[in-house]
Amino acid sequence: MSQLEKNTLLVKKTAQHLGFDYCGIAKAEFLEEEAPKLEAWLARNYNGKMAYMANHFDKRLDPTRLVDNARSVVSLVFNYYPPKKLPEGKNDIKIAKYAYGKDYHFVIREKLNHFLEILKEEIGEINGRAFVDSAPVMERQWAQRAGLGWTGKNSLLLNKNMGSFFFLAELIIDLPLHHDNPVERDYCGTCTRCIDACPTDAIVEANLVDASRCISYLTIELKEEIPAEFKGKMENWAFGCDICQDVCPWNRFSRPHREPEFLPHTEVESLDWQEMTKDTFDRVFRKSAVKRSKWTGMMRNIQFIRKK
């Protein structure tokens, strides 16, 4: 077995050991096909108030600008589908499944750092960086190139064996590895359930999402008042939204995760969202992704949903 093969096998086995569901590898190179798509998306202002999406344009497309002499992009999948859905309770308030437990940035970042440590111990000095939704990396495009799935009409990565309720993460390293074959086929076919189900018409067309109309954007990223045009269209989502995933036929293959840190805080199930104080919010969501909205943002969202 060549050193290239040994190193590739080590990467795959380490991913499995650390609990990742899938691991794929792509060549670190400029994403030429994605450049005009990203440019057109930004030109339409589909990024809304997320001005940062227009920053570091070249870095988003070229991994060698993030890691000197990068040779490989290791894409990883980590399941977050919960063992059970949170009860909506008397307030009928819903939060996205990815935010049930501890903030995934912390959980997966720790695993990625350990991943790099193992590679360095086994192989020697490696120049690389770990990414989990934290830098200008086009994670879905890299995952597709690495053979982990295809881009659904809702713009999320879909995997035939587990749907889309998973996090994506990457290691960009200067280590040459065997590259996996990309998923060339679109397995969505003529299905339009995600497009039809979106209450705010955020999915403009197949594979094209106007983020400024997405409930996840409106409840998390938008810091201003939610526009009145979305009144009555939020379907009680106060943090994030799972509608386009819940209706996707491929998510019938979703299976419960095995990560204890993704289980919800003990108080979440019985929470009275409308009467929640700032102290309660800070305590319950101290380590949660929900804290991104802050208490004021969550109260704004709930009031917008409940106001007639």
TrEMBL record:
InterPro entries: 4Fe4S_Fe-S-bd (IPR017896), 4Fe4S_Fe_S_CS (IPR017900), QueG (IPR004453), QueG_DUF1730 (IPR013542). Binds 2 [4Fe-4S] clusters per monomer. One of its GO terms (cellular component) is cytoplasm. GO terms for biological process: tRNA queuosine(34) biosynthetic process. It catalyses: epoxyqueuosine(34) in tRNA + AH2 = queuosine(34) in tRNA + A + H2O. Its cofactor is [4Fe-4S] cluster; cob(II)alamin. GO terms for molecular function: 4 iron, 4 sulfur cluster binding; cobalamin binding; epoxyqueuosine reductase activity; metal ion binding. Pathway: tRNA modification; tRNA-queuosine biosynthesis. TRNA binds at residue 223. Its EC number is 1.17.99.6. Keywords: 4Fe-4S, Cobalamin, Cobalt, Cytoplasm, Iron, Iron-sulfur, Metal-binding, Oxidoreductase, Queuosine biosynthesis, tRNA processing. It is found in: Cytoplasm. The active site is at 133 (proton donor). PANTHER family: EPOXYQUEUOSINE REDUCTASE (PTHR30002:SF4). Monomer. NCBIfam families: tRNA epoxyqueuosine(34) reductase QueG. Catalyzes the conversion of epoxyqueuosine (oQ) to queuosine (Q), which is a hypermodified base found in the wobble positions of tRNA(Asp), tRNA(Asn), tRNA(His) and tRNA(Tyr). This is Epoxyqueuosine reductase. It comes from Cyclobacterium lianum.
